[in-house]
Amino acid sequence: MAFPAVVSLRCAVQQYAWGRIGLDSAVASLSQSSNKDFTLQPDQPYAELWMGTHPKGPSIVGSSEHAGIPLSDFIAKQPECLGSKVRAKFGDQLPFLFKVLSVNKSLSIQAHPNKAHAEQLHSVRPDKYPDPNHKPEMALALTPFEGMNGFRPVSQIVNFLENVPELKAVVGEENAASLSAALNASNGNGSSEECRAGLKRCLSAIMNKDINEMTSKLEALIARLKAEEAGGQDLSQSNGLLVLRLYSQFPGDVGCFVSYLFNHITLQPGEAMFLGPNEPHAYLSGNCIECMACSDNVVRAGLTPKFKDIPTLCEMLTYLPSTAEERIFPSKTDPNDPYITIYNPPVPDFAVARVKVPADQTSYSLRAEDSPSIIIIIEGQGEVAHPSLPNGQALSFCKGSVLFLSANQSLALNLTNGLLAFRAFCPLD
Ligand SMILES: [Zn+2]
Predict the structure, then answer these.
(1) Distance of CA 280 from the midpoint of ligand 1 (Å)
(2) Per-residue pLDDT tens over the stretch 231-275
(3) Which positions ≥6 away from 114 have C-beta within 8 Å?
(4) Which of the residues 201, 300, 327, 423 is marked catalytic?
C-alpha cells in the first residue's frame, strides 16, 4: 500500500493540573474544533497538546487507509519520509516534539542540561533523568504569554536586595554586599566574572536556606506585601504582585524568593523565547506553541511538588544576566515569502515557521523542506491537495487540524478565509 506524503494526525491531550480550564484553554478549543472524538469537560484543565512520536503521548494517523496507526509506525514503515539529511543526523526518528501549551498556574523553575551533561545525569540517575538527550526548547506566544527567563540585570537584583529586607535576610548580608561590590567594581557590567560568581552565591544561598528560616521570612514578606496592597500601594514595579501570585499557587515555596533574581517576561502574540541549555526558566501563564528536542530531561528547583535537584541546578546554570527584552528571541521574515516568519534557534533539532496568509488569498503553496514537518492550523479552513493522496482526493482542514508532511514535498492549500499556522521542521544545511 502506498503511503501518502501528507496525513492528518490525532494528537494526545495532557490534562495536567496546571492547565487552563475548559474553553479558556487553547489546547481544548483547538481539539474541540478538529477532533470529533474529543469531549470537552468545561471544568477540567487542558494543559498540553502533543504533536509527534513521544511514547507518553503518541500522535495517531487520522486520515488515509493508514488511519489508526501511530505516527512512529507510519515513519518506521517508510523512513524515507524523514529525508536523507534528517536520517543521517538523527537516525530513523522524528527529532522534535511539537506542542501547544495552555498555562493557568506556574510550572516548575527548571533548566535543561546540555547533551554531555544529559548523558552523564542519565547514566547516574536514570530514574530521575529518563533519557540521554538534551532538551533545548522554544515557546511562541499565541496569546500574551508570561514566564520567568534568565537572570535579571545585576543592578535590578542589587536594588531588590536593598529594598526587600526579607530577601536580603535569606540571601545573607555578606552575599548581598559582595554582589553589590562586584557590580561597582565592574563599572555596571553585570556579566563580569565576579558578578556571575555573585549571582551563583545568591541563588545557592536562597535554595539551600534552612527551610524553617526561609518559610518564616517568606511569611513575613507576604504579610508585608498584603498590608501594602491593602493600603493601596502599587506593587507591580517591585515584583510584589508576582510574589503574591506565586505564593497563592505554591504556599511556602522558595520560588517566591527566586522570582526576584529571574526576569519576568510577557511575550506578545508572535514573540518567542528560546531556552538553550542551562538557562533557568518557568512558564507562568498564557497559551503558546512550544517546540523542543525529543527529550524529558528537566532539572527542577522550585514551584513544584516533583523531585528537586538543587545542587545540580545551582551548579549547571549559566548565570548570564540580561534584560527581559534581550530574552525575546528574534524572528525574521522569509526573504522569499512575506507570509512566513521563521524562528530558527541555534540547534539542529528544530525550527518553527509561522505562516500567516491574508483572507483575500484563496490558494497558497507550502514549500518543500528537506526534513519532515508537523503543521498545526490555528485559524482558517480549507483543503490540501497532493498527488499521493488516495484517488486524488483532497484532505480538508480546519482550526486545530494537525498535519504530518514528508520531507521534500510541497503542499497546495485552498483557503476559504486566510490562514494562521505553525510548522515545525529541522533546519539542516
Ligand atoms: Zn523547560
Answers:
(1) 8
(2) 999 998 999 999 999 999 999 999 999 999 999 999 999 999 999
(3) 134, 277, 278
(4) 300
